[in-house]
Structure formats: C-alpha cells, structure tokens
Write a structure and sequence with these properties.
Arc Repressor Mutant, subunit A, 293 residues, alpha/beta, 3 domains, D-Maltodextrin-Binding Protein, domain 2
Length: 293
C-alpha cells in the first residue's frame, strides 16, 4: 500500500472536499482525485462518495479512516525514533486558538515568525470551535481547558482574568451599578451559551447568579465592541479591555481567573516546524506576560 495515497486520503477525509485537500497538500485537484481512486482500487472498496459540494465517507471509508490515522501516528513515531525529523523549519502549521488570544494577541505577532522562517506557512484559525489533534484538524491548540486524556503534550502559557466593564457613555446615561442587585437592572451583554465548547468558558454565574443577557455574541472581540458602543455591561477579558480608555471597570472586586494552555500531539514533538511555532508562541506570551495580569 502506497503511504502517499493514504496520506492524501486522510487530507480529503479531514477537509471534506478534494479541492480543499488539494490546496492544503499543494497538489493538483485532479492528482488528489486520482490518488484516492488508486487507493480505492487497491483496497477494492469505495471509500468516498463524491458530490458537487464535497465528499462523504462510506462505511468502509469510516473504518479505513481509523486505520489510516493509526498508520499516520506510527509513521510519525517511527520517524522520530530513528531521528528522521525535519532538518529545516518549512511547511504548514495550523493553529487553532480562541478568538481573543488568537486575533488580538497572536495574529499581530505571527508575521515576525514567518520572517524568521521564510519557508514556514502559518494557518491561524481563531474561531470558538473544537479541533481534533488526533485527526490533525489542527497541529497546535491554544485552549483554556487542560486536556487530561490522549497522547498530548500540554504546556501552560499564561493566566488571565475577566471582569465587568461598561463604556463611559453608557454609564453617563445609566449610572454605575454598585451591587449585584443594581447590576441586574442594567443591559447585560453575554455569550451564546449553546455555542460554548468548554465548561471553563461558562463564567456568567461567577459574576452574578441568574445572569440574563439582553444581547449575546459568540465572539469575545464582538463583546468588547458591543460594550464600547454603549450596548450594556459585559464580562470582558481584561487584557482586551485595558487598552481602551473608553471602558470602565464595574464592581472591580469581581474577577474570574483562567489559563491559556498550548497543546499538541506527542507524535509531533520532534517535528522542527511544530517546535519552532510552539517555542515562538511561548516566547511571545512570556515577553508580554504583564499584558495579561
């Protein structure tokens, strides 16, 4: 069995499209389709149902996907065991990150990383969704929840805090609440509860019991902008709120502390591009640690 064919099948299965997989692999669309067909011929099984808008795995494809992922893990482990790791920092690395850290902190700094390693391609996916490291949907995760299962390497980045904020304009019109009860009479901005992917991101009750939002936004940067516009009082990351002089802390004794972790699969520990990106993120976070306090 040709490992390259298996690798290409994995990319298609994970992307859900031949076109998207071909872009990520840097191969021609027709080449990707032909290699998947060759694998199906060798296995004498149809692995994919090809549609105009993407591909679906057949039951045989689902079964082979699990075997292919085990093959991938063993291949990475074997390369690491015999010392066959990357000799240069080249190739693509996908980072899945929470939008606050990913957009506000990491995105402005990644240009320095690609200048440092011209052959490196960074894919930052700063959206509040869950990624699977075992399925290689992302190479590196920035998360607020420390994983306790799986063959993962986890490294603490930094602690951060959340607090209540309102705009000066909002307070001038509505007054400043000085208690939990007074806070409940104000317009409150919160997150969309059913889109929260981690229990660590459920923090409304840590501020006020039975918090009732008048306006809900799934992105933390959207919450910052809504509060700045005077839509109400919101729970904001302090490192995101602090640079804005138009934002005022409310009930400053109320605070929730959280932690950012960086996580990647242990099979990638000896891949130089992964190590370079992990080290860069840790370095940048450490250099700017005061920003998060």
């Amino acid at each position: 069995m040709n490992w390259d064919d298996v690798r290409i099948f994995l990319a298609v299965a994970r992307a859900g499209q031949i076109l998207a997989a071909s872009r990520r692999l840097g191969l021609n669309h027709a080449t990707v389709g032909r290699r998947v067909s060759a694998l199906e011929t060798e296995l004498q099984s149809k692995l994919l149902v090809r549609r105009t808008n993407g591909c679906d795995l057949t039951p045989e494809g689902e079964a082979f996907l699990q075997a292919a992922e085990r093959m991938e893990s063993e291949m990475l482990s074997a390369r690491a065991a015999v010392g066959r790791t990357d000799t240069e920092v080249t190739g693509a690395v996908r980072i899945g990150a929470t939008d606050g850290y990913g957009i506000a902190f990491l995105a402005p700094r990644l240009g320095e990383l690609t200048k440092r390693y011209p052959g490196l391609k960074i894919q930052l996916v700063p959206v509040p969704q869950s990624f699977s490291l075992s399925r290689r949907e992302a190479d590196i995760l920035i998360t607020v929840e420390r994983p306790d299962v799986g063959r993962l390497i986890t490294r603490k980045l930094v602690d951060y805090a959340l607090g209540l904020y309102a705009s000066k304009a909002y307070l001038a019109l509505n007054g400043t609440p000085d208690s939990d009860e007074a806070l409940k009479t104000h317009s409150l901005i919160g997150y969309v509860e059913d889109l929260i992917i981690s229990p660590r991101l459920h923090y409304r009750s840590d501020f006020v019991r039975n918090w009732q939002s008048d306006f809900e936004i799934s992105a933390v940067l959207g919450q910052v902008e809504a509060v700045r516009a005077g839509a109400g009082i919101g729970i904001l990351h302090k490192f995101l709120a602090r640079p804005h002089e138009d934002l005022v802390p409310i009930l400053p004794h109320k605070q929730v502390d959280r932690t950012y972790w960086i996580v990647y699969h242990e099979n990638l520990r000896n891949i130089r591009r992964i190590k370079a990106v992990v080290d860069f993120i840790a370095e940048q976070t450490e250099q700017n640690r005061e920003q998060f306090r």
